[in-house]
TrEMBL record:
Name under which the protein is recorded: ABC transporter ATP-binding protein
Subcellular location(s) of the protein: Cell membrane
Listed transmembrane segments: 21-40, 52-76, 134-151, 157-174, 245-263
Protein's membrane topology: Multi-pass membrane protein
Record's GO cellular component terms: plasma membrane
Function: May be involved in multidrug export. Transmembrane domains (TMD) form a pore in the cell membrane and the ATP-binding domain (NBD) is responsible for energy generation.
Molecular function as annotated in GO: ABC-type oligopeptide transporter activity; ATP binding; ATP hydrolysis activity
Gene3D superfamilies referenced in this protein's UniProt entry, alphabetically: ABC transporter type 1, transmembrane domain, P-loop containing nucleotide triphosphate hydrolases
Pfam families in the record: ABC_membrane, ABC_tran
Highest taxon listed in the record's lineage: Bacteria
Organism: Macrococcoides goetzii
KW Mitochondrion (keyword) present: no
Length: 572
C-alpha cells in the first residue's frame, strides 16, 4: 500500500483537488434531502412565492457548483490516474529495457506486453477511483444513517436492517462476476497469443496449408471466450436485477411505514420526502461497491505484477566502479570461461586469445556453443566462472555502453523495424548525416537495389522487413554496421540463409566491413572462411582444433572431415 501511495507524491495538489471535490459532492448530495424537507416544511407553509423562487435559485446555484465539482472529479481525477499510470509504465519500460537476455529467454513477449498495457490501465483506474470511492461510500453510508436517525429512529433502524442483506447479495454476485471476468482476462491473453501467433506466422500457416487447423484452434478459443463472457454477464444480470428489486422493495417499505408515521403525526411531510430521498442515496454506495470490488483485485493484481517485475534484477549492468573503455581493443582474451544456461553447462573452462585485426572463424556442429561464445563478448550473458578481458581489463569493469559500442553484431535473422529503409540503416548511428548514410549504403552494396525503388531510401520495409529479400535485409544490417563503425565485428551465420550467388555478393561487402577490424565469423559454409587467419573448430563448448585452413586440412581431423563432406555435397 505504502509503495503504491508513493506514486501520488508528485500529484499532491491534483489528488487534494480530486479528493476534496468528491467529498464535497458527496456531502451536498447528502444535504439535499434535508434542504428539500426544509423547503416543504418551512418555506411552503409561508406561501411566500418570492421566497420559494429565491430558494430555488439558491439551490440552482449550489448545484451548478456541484456540476463543476463533478467535472473536476471526472476529468482531473482521471488526469491523476493517467499520470500515475504513465509514470509507472515509464518506470517499468525503463526497467525492462535493461534486463538481460536470460530474462527475455524465459518470458513471453505477450505476457510482457500485457504487463505494460492492460495491467497498468487497471492500476491507473484504481489510482483514480480507489481512495475516493471508498471514502465517499463510507461517508455516504454513515452520513445517511445519521440523517435518518435524526429524522426518525424507528424507520431508520428498519431500513438499516434491510441494507446488510442487500450488501451481502451484492457482494456475493459481484464475487462470482469478478471471478468470471478474471477468467475472461486469462482468456484474453490466451486469445492474444493465438491471434498473434497465427497472424504473425501467417506465411508459415499458408505454406503448410494449415489454415483449417489454425481456424479450429481459433474458433475453439473464441468459443471459450464467448462462454466465459456470457457466464460473467449472467451474474451481472442477477446482480443488477436483484439489486433493483431490493432497492424498490426497501422504498416501498419506507413508503408504507412513512405513510403510517405521517398519519399518526409522528413525521412531517418534508421529513417523509427527505427520508425517501435518503433511502435512495443509501443505495449509491452499493454501486460504488460494485466498482470497488471490480477495481481493487484487478488494480492490486496489476500492481503486484508490476512490483514483481521491478524486483527482477540483472547482474549484467555497470559495476559501481566501471570505467568507459576508450582505447583500441588490442587483445581479446577468454580466460577459463565456464557458462551454463540454467543447469546445463555449455562452455567449460574455455580459453583463447585474439589479437587486433585478426580474422577468426568459428565452425563446428550446431549446438556446439559458437553463438554462446560470441554472445558473451558484448556481455549478453556473463560467464559463471573465469573471465573475458580486452586489453587485460575484465569486460565487467567497463561500462556496458562503451563495451557494446566497440562491437558490431550481424545476426542470421536480421531484425528490421517497420519504418523506412533509411530509419533502419540509421539505427546503427542515430546521429548519422545523410552523406554518412549514403556512404554506408554504397559500401554495403545496397545502392543498386535502392536505386530501383521509386521511393528510394524512404521506402517502407513492412513489418520486420517483409518487403525485402533475405539478402537485402542482410545488406541493411551490414550498412548499419558501417554506420556504427565498431572495432570488433561478429558475424553469426550471417549468410547461411542466402543462396550462393547472393552470398558471394555479400561476401565482398563483409570483406570491406571487416577490413582492419577484429572479426569473429561463425560460418556454416566453409567456402566463405578460407582466408581467415585462424579457424576454431568448436564442439560441445570446447575448441577441439585450431589453426589456419591449410593447417587444419593437413591435420586431417574434424575440420578436414567437414570440408570433405561439404565438398561432396557441392559435387552432388
Ligand atoms: P551454436 O551456435 O554452435 O549452434 P549455441 O551457442 O547456439 O550453439 O547453443 C549451444 C547450446 O546452448 C545448445 O545446446 C542450445 O540448445 C543451448 N542454448 C542456446 N541458447 C539458449 C538459451 N537462450 N537458453 C537455453 N539454452 C540455450
Ligand atoms: Mg549459432
Amino acid at each position: 500500500m505504502k509503495s503504491f501511495f508513493q506514486y501520488y507524491k508528485p500529484y499532491k495538489g491534483l489528488f487534494m483537488l480530486d479528493f476534496g471535490s468528491a467529498v464535497f459532492v458527496g456531502v451536498l448530495e447528502l444535504v439535499f434531502p434535508l434542504i428539500t424537507s426544509l423547503f416543504i416544511d418551512k418555506l411552503l407553509p409561508t406561501k411566500d412565492w418570492n421566497m420559494i423562487v429565491l430558494g430555488a435559485i439558491g439551490l440552482f446555484l449550489v448545484f451548478s457548483f456541484v456540476t463543476v465539482l463533478k467535472f473536476i472529479v471526472t476529468y482531473w481525477g482521471h488526469k491523476l490516474g493517467t499520470n500515475i499510470e504513465r509514470d509507472i509504465r515509464n518506470e517499468l519500460y525503463r526497467h525492462l529495457q535493461r534486463l538481460n537476455f536470460g530474462f527475455f529467454d524465459n518470458n513471453k513477449t505477450g505476457k510482457l506486453i500485457g504487463r505494460l498495457t492492460n495491467d497498468l490501465m487497471d492500476i491507473g483506474e484504481l489510482a483514480h477511483h480507489g481512495p475516493e470511492e471508498v471514502f465517499v461510500a463510507v461517508m455516504t453510508v454513515i452520513g445517511a444513517l445519521l440523517i435518518m436517525l435524526t429524522i426518525d429512529v424507528k424507520l431508520a433502524l428498519i431500513t438499516f436492517c434491510i441494507v446488510p442483506i442487500i450488501c451481502i447479495l451484492t457482494i456475493y454476485f459481484n464475487k462470482k462476476m469478478t471471478t468470471q471476468f478474471r477468467r475472461l482476462f486469462g482468456n484474453v491473453s490466451q486469445f492474444n497469443d493465438v491471434i498473434s501467433e497465427s497472424i504473425g506466422g501467417i506465411r508459415l500457416v499458408q505454406a503448410f496449408t494449415n489454415e483449417r487447423f489454425e481456424e479450429k484452434r481459433f474458433l475453439q478459443t473464441n468459443e471459450d471466450f464467448r462462454a466465459t463472457k456470457l457466464k460473467a454477464y449472467n451474474f451481472m444480470s442477477w446482480n443488477s436485477s436483484i439489486g433493483y428489486l431490493a432497492q424498490k422493495f426497501t422504498l416501498i417499505i419506507v413508503l408504507i411505514l412513512g405513510c403510517y408515521f405521517v398519519l399518526n403525526n409522528a413525521m412531517s411531510y418534508g421529513e417523509f420526502v427527505a427520508f425517501i430521498m435518503i433511502t435512495d442515496i443509501l443505495f449509491k454506495p452499493l454501486q460504488s461497491i460494485n466498482l470497488i470490488i471490480e477495481l481493487f483485485p484487478k488494480g492490486i493484481a496489476g500492481f503486484n505484477n508490476f512490483q514483481e517485475l521491478m524486483k527482477t534484477t540483472t547482474d549484467i549492468k555497470d559495476e559501481p566502479n566501471a570505467i568507459a573503455f576508450e582505447g583500441t581493443p588490442q587483445v581479446i582474451s577468454y580466460e577459463n570461461v565456464t557458462f551454463k544456461y540454467g543447469d546445463k553447462t555449455i562452455l567449460d573452462d574455455l580459453s583463447f586469445t585474439i589479437n587486433r585485426g585478426e580474422k577468426i572463424a568459428l565452425v563446428g556442429p550446431s549446438g556446439g556453443g559458437k553463438t554462446t561464445i560470441c554472445s558473451m563478448l558484448p556481455r549478453f550473458y556473463d560467464p559463471v566462472d573465469g573471465r573475458i578481458t580486452i586489453n587485460n581489463v575484465d569486460i565487467k569493469q567497463m561500462t556496458l555502453e562503451s563495451l557494446r559500442n566497440k562491437i558490431g553484431l550481424v545476426q542470421q535473422d536480421v531484425f528490421l523495424f517497420s519504418g523506412t529503409l533509411r530509419d533502419n540503416i540509421a539505427y546503427g548511428n542515430l546521429e548519422a548525416t545523410d552523406e554518412e548514410i549514403m556512404d554506408a549504403v554504397t559500401k554495403a552494396q545496397l545502392k543498386p537495389f535502392i536505386d530501383t525503388l521509386p521511393e528510394g531510401i524512404h521506402t517502407i520495409v513492412g513489418e520486420r522487413g517483409t518487403k525485402l529479400s533475405g539478402g537485402q535485409k542482410q545488406r541493411v544490417s551490414i550498412a548499419r554496421m558501417f554506420l556504427k563503425n565498431p572495432e570488433i565485428i561478429i558475424l553469426d551465420e550471417a549468410t547461411s540463409a542466402l543462396d550462393v550467388e547472393t552470398e558471394n555478393r555479400i561476401q565482398s561487402a563483409f570483406k570491406q566491413l571487416s577490413e582492419g577490424r577484429t572479426t569473429l565469423t561463425i560460418a556454416h559454409r566453409l567456402s566463405t572462411i578460407r582466408d581467415v587467419d585462424r579457424i576454431f573448430y568448436i564442439e560441445d563448448g570446447h575448441i577441439v582444433e585450431m589453426g589456419s585452413h591449410e593447417e587444419l586440412i593437413n591435420l586431417k581431423g574434424r575440420y578436414y572431415k567437414l570440408q570433405q563432406a561439404q565438398y561432396a555435397q557441392v559435387l552432388g
